[in-house]
Structure formats: structure tokens, C-alpha cells
Amino acid sequence: MTDTKNTEVVTLTNKEELQLKLKKALKTVDKKIASLNGNANLTSFKTTGQFKYNELDGNVVNILTHTDVVYLIKALALMIRIKKEYQEAAETSGLTSYPICSWFGVPVDNWIHDLTLRVKLVGNANLINQLSTERKKLEAFLSEDQRLETTLSNLSELLK
């Protein structure tokens, strides 16, 4: 003869443990996606993305949508080199105060920020997509109350 009360308690405990594991897994996936800059959006960027590789070339590339990681790394290297050489030239000239280094009217530091972010996004795109897909699968196992709690939490973050 089996004790149905004990079976129910064990089953409830297992469900509770699984729900805790589920919440922990979702948080872990969210942290990993964030560390890969997978949550970046257009407001994360500091430039319009309209990048010209050199002054003589009329071609403009939108680095916010460009997917050639080699091009993006070369553009990033150029901006780092220009910043370094600009500072060295100003210091060599004996200047202690000088204008911010800019590239076609945009501070070089902003280009460095955006190119670094975009390189990470493009380089990690497959992993970010895989993690996002697995996260959606996990979300299907959330209870209705947990989904509501998550939605309200996300909403409060957006309204800050």
C-alpha cells in the first residue's frame, strides 16, 4: 500500500525544485546574453553608424548593420590608431590642452565604443541566437504567475 500523501509532498517538492532550477537557468542565460552584449539595441550606440573609412573615399558603411567582422575590426583598429597618433602629435607639439579627436565630426571615442560593441555583437551572433532560442524554450515551462512576475519586472525596468 502506498502513502498518497507522501507521494503528493514529494511530487510538489520536485515541482518546486524544478521551478527554482528553471528560474536560475533563465537568470544564467540572461546574464550570459548580457555579457555578450546581446541586449544591445540602437540606443546603446553613440553614433549614427555612418562610417567613412578614409577622407578621400566617398563610400559610407553603416556599422550598425554591417556584418563583416573583418571590416569592423579594421575600422576599429583605424580609430584606435588615429586616437593614439592624435594624442602623440598634440603632446609632441607641446600642447597640454587640445580639441577632442574626431572623425568626420564624431568623437573618435564614440566610434571606438560603437565599433567595439558591433564587433562583439557580430562575433557572438550565433551564440546569442542559440541562447535566445533555448531561453524561449525554458519560458514555456514558466507558470502563469511567474510569467506575470517576469513581465511586471521587465516593465518596471523599462519605466526607470
Helices and strands: which structural class?
mainly alpha
**SSE string, helix = H, strand = E?**
HEEHEEHHH
Shape: elongated
Low-confidence stretches: none
Q: Which percent band covers the strand fraction? A: 5-15%
Q: What is the distance, rounded to the nearest whole angstrom, between the alpha carbons of the first and last residues?
A: 57 Å
Quick one: biggest sheet?
2 strands, antiparallel
Q: Number of helical segments?
A: 5
Number of E-state strands: 4
Whole-number total of structural domains: 1
Biggest sheet: strand arrangement: 1-2
Q: Into which percent range does the helicity of residues fall? A: 55-70%
Mean residue pLDDT? 86
| Rg | 24 Å
